[in-house]
Amino acid sequence: MRPPVADIADVVSFNADGLVAAIAQQHDTGEVLMMAWMNAEALAETLSTGRVCYYSRSRGKLWRKGESSGQTQALIDLRIDCDGDALLLLVDQSGVACHTGRRSCFYRAARPEGLVEIAAPEISPDALYGHTHNH
Amino acid sequence: MRPPVADIADVVSFNADGLVAAIAQQHDTGEVLMMAWMNAEALAETLSTGRVCYYSRSRGKLWRKGESSGQTQALIDLRIDCDGDALLLLVDQSGVACHTGRRSCFYRAARPEGLVEIAAPEISPDALYGHTHNH
User: Fold this and answer.
1) A105 with A93: CB under 8 angstroms?
2) C-alpha to C-alpha distance for B77 and B102, rounded to whole angstroms
3) Sign of the four-CA dihedral B65, A107, A92, A65
4) Do A79 and B4 touch (CB under 8 A)?
5) Which residues, 6 or more positions from B47, have their beta carbon under 8 angstroms from its beta carbon?
6) Does A53 appear as a known binding residue?
């Protein structure tokens, strides 16, 4: 996918920090995997490469999803909401999206008995981040 | 669903404005409908009533989804992400989520030829907001 980047960025309302919220959804199962942020540069890179790149607020720099974990997100489609302040990324997630080793970051549910973990790690964080790998 | 509100709010990381991002997803189809914001009061009301209430940043007050349009969201489940700064609301959307009359706010897609509208309004905004109704 190589849409005209300028065309897209024109309708995005970046916030005071220059960021827009980006929701990643597995394109075929509909599972919501995570929410993160993009600046204009991350959005442009994502659109031009077809590989999802966020902006890490904690590290203050581009966050090429999977660059340390190998768990990349291939962009299938990118949607923009009515007021332009949220993006929905339809992706093909390689492995797991969450740094805890779970498929989705939304693994805790508010249930009558309190917070419940509804998914277990599929990979240990050590395996994700502790070793050199070639992904 | 009546989970202990304090238990949930304790793990939510509200931002500097006292808000947390909330993604609404239709519980059975997986369609992502919208993204909005909640403050602690909106979250507590949503959990205690089972009807989704956001916080409107533009109006600076609670936004009981559907209070003017009739297009309410019944809460089916509420998920919290790994770092607590995003919520995923599994909802049963009555009618349409978007103020444009479309089912989802994410009705524009970035395609090679530019931005494309991938969904048409199901209800006219006039019908949603222009008349008194009893929903």
Assistant:
1) no
2) 23
3) positive
4) no
5) A110, B1, B2, B3, B5, B8, B75, B78
6) no
Residue in A closest to B6 by C-alpha:
A114
CA distance B135 to chain A (A): 24
What class has domain A5-129? alpha beta
Mean pLDDT confidence for B12-34: 97
Contact yes or no for B106 and A8 at CB 8 A:
no
B chain contacts of residue A102, beta-carbon cutoff 8 Å: 82
- Which of A88-92, A101-105, B5-9 has the least mean pLDDT? B5-9
CB B121 within 8 A of CB B100: yes
User: A20 to chain B nearest CA, in Å?
Assistant: 12
Q: Which residue of A has its CA nearest to B87?
A: A106
Give tens-digit pLDDT for B28-64: 999 999 999 999 999 999 999 999 999 999 999 999 9
Put simply, whether A57 touches B (Cβ < 8 Å) is no
Please provide the DSSP assignment of B6-24 as one string: HHHHTT----TTS-EEEEE
Beta carbons within 10 angstroms of residue B69's beta carbon: 21
Stronger pLDDT, A53 or B113, i.e. the higher one: A53
Instruction: Report DSSP state, residue A106.
Output: -
Interface TM-score (ipTM) > 0.90: yes
A102: nearest CA in chain B? Answer: B82
**Are the CB atoms for A118 and A109 separated by under 8 Å?**
yes
Please state, as a whole number, how many other Cβ atoms lie within 10 Å of the Cβ of residue A44. 16
Domain boundaries, chain B: 5-129
Interface A-B: count of C-beta contacts within 8 A? 128
Query: pLDDT category, B135, cuts 50, 70, 90?
Result: very low
pLDDT of residue B131: 56
